[in-house]
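Students often ask why we bother predicting the structure of a whole assembly rather than each chain alone. The short answer is interfaces. A chain on its own may look different once its partners are present, and contacts between molecules only exist in the joint model. In this exercise we take two input lines together and write out one structure for the complete complex. Read the inputs first and try to guess which parts will touch.
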Amino acid sequence: GNSVTQMEGPVTLSEEAFLTINCTYTATGYPSLFWYVQYPGEGLQLLLKATKADDKGSNKGFEATYRKETTSFHLEKGSVQVSDSAVYFCALSADSGNTPLVFGKGTRLSVIA
Amino acid sequence: GAVVSQHPSRVICKSGTSVKIECRSLDFQATTMFWYRQFPKQSLMLMATSNEGSKATYEQGVEKDKFLINHASLTLSTLTVTSAHPEDSSFYICSAREAGTGANVLTFGAGSRLTVL
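Now the answer. The structure tokens for the assembled complex follow.
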């Protein structure tokens, strides 16, 4: 079946450090890939997405590239801020229909000043 | 953009009582909504898929008689936790997909934190 594996946290970085959160997936066909962010006490917000191989999703300085050859969708940001502290979820959707997302377990990021 | 409103955001109830959580798509129609449950420091577990005008589809291991889902209109789905017990305490999150948006992008509600005493 479809699954998502992401690096376990927590990840603690100093402000302006480089961030990478690894995400790999297993899926049949050609899934769409997503990163969602959950700030403390809130629901999930879509951070970025990519719908086909080699697509790069980007938003708020975060980027992730859909790599079919390595079945990966790693999240990166060149310079993190304290306000980026949150839990990040990698997710996939097997098709464009009304199917639920499959989530990774989440990675908690703490950025300290 | 698409907005999903979830209410209440926090609820505390006594063991044995029932609690209803509402999920509304504010500016779009959603024929399908999804209910997730999130345990502390864990990922989201899909509970059920709510289909407008028909019965919900529950994931394996989720008690349909305990977690009643009703999707009465294209903009409203409700989750009722019946005869709640402390182990039902959790963060419940609903989501919906706006039709015609292409990739399966889900918009999430802000979640409802249920505490059962």
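Check your guess against this: The first strand of chain B starts at residue 4 and ends at 7.
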